[in-house]
């Protein structure tokens, strides 16, 4: 009886030991698998962290470059002349250089404005700087005035040096109750005729493309003086027309 009982117990013990060995092997395998997964995750995190640091570094470098470019542009654009002569100072409408202003005159009728400006333009044609100028349209029914002017623009007038150009343009004034719409357009220069010079269109000479340097911070060498004098003359005329309608502003003492 004793021998019969011993054999089953030995077999059971062996089976139990094999199960334990298998379980431990599975646990080790599972543990090793988990360790490998953790290692991969850690490596992925390191790569991600490295990529983020690199991206942050590149972003900072880009920001510094952009800031430097902006600072350089700011330093580069230092106007060499009054801003009124720079970009946008010579407007173009329908392919033609056209300076435009509206003279407001509250309380004044279209006829009052028409009469005052018509008289001024007529006397203007007789001024000493005029060459061949006339008031070509004076339509009192439409309150329309058109002056066809040709005058001298003087660049330099010193001993033995007279640098000037013929300056042809049209002043078109449409009068209404309370205001006048004024345009100075169709500009043509005739320069240096004595030495074979000829006519020059404003569109090919004083616009931003031709009248400014490449940086647009200064007037062009050749055409710049035409641009400057034309803008000055336009300002002078528009101010004079406004004063004819509204009177000269009071001087503040």
Structural description of this entry:
With 253 residues, the protein is an alpha+beta fold. The chain folds into 2 domains: 13-76; 83-246, 2-Layer Sandwich (Alpha-D-Glucose-1,6-Bisphosphate, Chain A, domain 4). Helices cover 46% and strands 25% of the residues. It has 4 helices and 7 strands. It has helices at residues 2-76, 110-124, 208-211, 224-246, and strands spanning 92-93, 96-104, 134-139, 144-158, 161-176, 179-191, 199-201. Strands 1, 2, 3, 4, 5, 6 and 7 form a 7-stranded antiparallel β-sheet that branches. A hairpin with a 7-residue loop joins β6 and β7. The longest helix is centred in the N-terminal third of the chain and has 75 residues, at 2-76. Residues 1-7 have low confidence and may be disordered.
Mean pLDDT: 88
Report the β-strand fraction as a percent range: 25-35%
CATH architecture of the largest domain: 2-Layer Sandwich
| DSSP summary, beta strand count | 7
| Number of DSSP helical runs | 4
Total of domains: 2
Shape type: elongated
Structural class: alpha+beta
Low-confidence stretches: 1-7
CATH topology of the largest domain: Alpha-D-Glucose-1,6-Bisphosphate, Chain A, domain 4
Radius of gyration: 44 Å
Q: Which oligomerization state do the chains in this entry correspond to? A: single chain
- Roughly how much helix do the residues carry, as a percent range? 40-55%
What is the CATH domain class of the largest domain? Alpha Beta
| Cα separation of the termini | 140 Å
Note the run of SSEs as H and E: HEEHEEEEEHH
Biggest sheet character: 7 strands, antiparallel
């Amino acid at each position: 009886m004793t021998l019969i009982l011993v054999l089953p117990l030995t077999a059971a013990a062996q089976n139990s030991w094999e199960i334990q060995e298998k379980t431990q092997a599975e646990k080790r395998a599972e543990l090793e698998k988990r360790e490998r997964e953790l290692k991969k995750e850690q490596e992925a995190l390191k790569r991600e962290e490295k990529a983020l640091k690199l991206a942050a570094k590149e972003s900072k470098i880009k920001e510094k470059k952009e800031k430097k470019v902006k600072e350089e542009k700011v330093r580069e654009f230092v106007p060499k002349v009054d801003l009124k002569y720079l970009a946008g100072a010579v407007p173009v409408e329908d392919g033609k250089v056209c300076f435009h202003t509206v003279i407001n005159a509250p309380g004044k009728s279209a006829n009052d404005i028409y009469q005052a400006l018509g008289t001024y333009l007529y006397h203007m044609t007789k001024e000493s700087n005029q060459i061949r100028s006339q008031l070509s349209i004076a339509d009192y029914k439409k309150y329309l005035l058109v002056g066809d002017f040709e005058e001298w623009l003087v660049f330099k007038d010193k001993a033995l040096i007279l640098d000037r150009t013929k300056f042809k343009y049209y002043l078109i004034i449409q009068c209404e109750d309370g205001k006048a719409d004024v345009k100075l357009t169709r500009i043509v220069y005739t320069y240096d005729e004595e030495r074979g010079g000829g006519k020059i269109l404003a569109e090919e000479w004083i616009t931003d493309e031709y009248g400014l340097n490449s940086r647009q911070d200064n007037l062009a060498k050749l055409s710049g003086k035409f641009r400057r004098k034309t803008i000055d003359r336009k300002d002078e005329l528009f101010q004079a027309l406004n004063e004819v309608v509204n009177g000269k502003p009071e001087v503040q003492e």
